[in-house]
Amino acid sequence: MTTPTRRLRPDAVLVQAVIAGALSFAHLHDLAAAAGQSGWKAWAYPVSVDLLLVAAWRRLRAGRDGSSWTWFAIALAASLGANVATAGLLDLHQVPAWLRILVAGWPALAFLGGTLLVHAPAPAAVEPEPDEEPSAPEIEVHRDTPESVAQAPVPAAELTPAPVQPSATAPAVPPALLDHARSIADAHRNSTGEQITADALTARLRLPAPTCQAIAAQLQLT
């Protein structure tokens, strides 16, 4: 089984970038050589300029700090100036002294810029803004008008039967006898689930009728 091979397709943008880079590299080399930098030093100048330009551009893309624009402008000015200078504006056989000074001082400047770009502090992380606090839900308050209050039904009060007061002519019942009758009534309610009648209590107590009636009245028995 053969694996398909990918064909290399020429990219016009890549070809143009290679050509432009080669021309700029050659112009920087020619200017450095004319300024007195011979041998490998003349080839190192274009490398330092282009590397500083690329490093500054990458820091700009990463959004590191504002100094990246400064070093990007310096490297761009050096590259653009060298390309323009080799267009016949300067006599490369008689390079002025100020240009020789700039070319000689460029390595230190490029080293400083590269070091600062590499060791630039990372940007402070931007804290996300807190979400707005949700507003409290609106609560509708309905106030009762006097008419609605007047029309509101009033629940009937629960009527509790008043305890039957013994008549003045009823015989007095001793508390002990009343407690005994109440215990008999409670035992009857617990066993049968119904309230004892006055006749049943009279039969259980075996006391005179007036006394039993007085006890039944105080216990509210029928």
Give a description of the structure:
- The protein has 222 residues and is mostly helical.
- 60% of the residues lie in helices and 0% in strands.
- It has eight helices and no strands.
- Helix 1 crosses helix 3.
- The two termini are 112 Å apart.
- The model has no long low-confidence stretch (mean pLDDT 76).
Detail the topology: elements first, then pairings.
Layout: H1 12-34, H2 40-62, H3 67-89, H4 97-118, H5 146-151, H6 175-192, H7 198-205, H8 209-218
Straight-line distance between termini: 112 Å
Could you give the count of β-strands?
0
The share of residues in extended strands comes to under 5%
The residue ranges in which pLDDT falls below 50 over 5 or more consecutive positions are none
Radius of gyration: 57 Å
Structural class: mainly alpha
| Percentage of residues assigned to helices | 55-70%
Give the quaternary arrangement of the chains. single chain
The best one-word shape is: rod-shaped
Average pLDDT over all residues: 76
The ordered H/E elements are HHHHHHHH
Largest sheet: none
DSSP helix count? 8
